[in-house]
Amino acid sequence: MISDFIADSLVMASIVITLITVITYQVAAALQQRWQSIWLNPMLVTISILVPVLLFVEMNYQEYTRATQLLNYLLEPAIVALGFPLYQQLRQIRFHWREITAILSFGIIIVIAVSLIMAMILIKAPEIAVALSLKSVTTPIGITLTDQLSGDSSITAFAIMVAGLFGGLLGPAWLKVIGVKSPKAQGLAIGSASHVIGTAIMVRVSAEHGAYSSVALILSALLTALISPWLIPLLQTLFS
Amino acid sequence: MANLLYTLFAISISLLLGKLANHALAGLPASLYGMVFYAIFLQINWVSAERVSATNQWLVRHMGVCFVPAGVGIINHFQLMQQHGIALISIIFISTFILLTVIGYLSERFLITPSHSHSHSHKDTSQVESHD
Fold first, then answer.
1. Residue A186 has pLDDT above 50, yes or no
2. Confidence band (pLDDT; 50, 70, 90) for A40?
3. Does residue A196 lie in a domain region?
4. In B, residues 58-97, which contact A (CB 8 Å cutoff)?
5. B67 burial class (0-12, 13-18, 19+ CB within 10 angstroms)?
6. B113 and chain A: CB distance < 8 Å anywhere?
7. Who is most buried in A49, A83, A239, B7, counting CB within 10 A?
8. CA distance A21 to B73
């Protein structure tokens, strides 16, 4: 039935489906504002609602992405807008930018290698391995890079969300266990492992935690974009 | 309203330059070049941080909705989840904790500023603030 509706009027269907997506997301975001729980992550909530709905109305994923093209077009300007928080943090990085860049690059190389190799051994599907290796980066950039390296970006989006929740929920306690106490180190670690979800939690701990977490979030996005296009093909040659 | 248009204009120009850079140099995706251009324009004051602040914060707060379609793509992977769900989750879990440990440990070790450079940084911060 839904495919008839789309066939009849693509524009109308696009408007309705995009609106449903936006409204569901906004309601979820409002709920999270109110209850302050990271389990109410708006993207997680929206996806858990939309997937059953799509299955119920028998709309396939291709039809859904076509109907929500508009949101896809907005992805690029949204990434550009992240230049503003980057500019705000430049002052923070000024004094240790070399050390921070070196530490983050090292971490990124390790996490890409570990995820890609584990995935190639356990799951044996290159497009999934690429997606998993790019999960420690903020969603828009993870998706863009995965597409660029012919991975499956829907897996990336999912993996980024799961990594965000793991790191955000368990990360602070784990860092205490291994003796990482300084706000800078905690902020950088959580920001790079759990990007936006982690940063949202760090901001509430202290301003310094929040600042370093967003430094890690943005800098590791840039570094991953610089590192992954040569590291991933290089690692892939191990398995071909 | 003027500030809204100003912000959208600044972002569009940055993105346009990003597309050109991506075309000419490859390397980063166009949007990331755009992000860097935008940060540079703000830093050298070609774009006024004060005027973009409100709209930009709104954009960043609501950008999550643009990733929903990608996330919904999981609908195509029920079979994968059934077959490899545990492997998938373990890979995410293990690599996330390795990353936390590596970054946390190295930062704790190498970013603790010795006392002399600490007083330096305080002085510098005040200078930076007066410069801006």
1. yes
2. confident
3. yes
4. 59-60, 62-77, 80, 84, 87-97
5. buried
6. yes
7. A83
8. 14
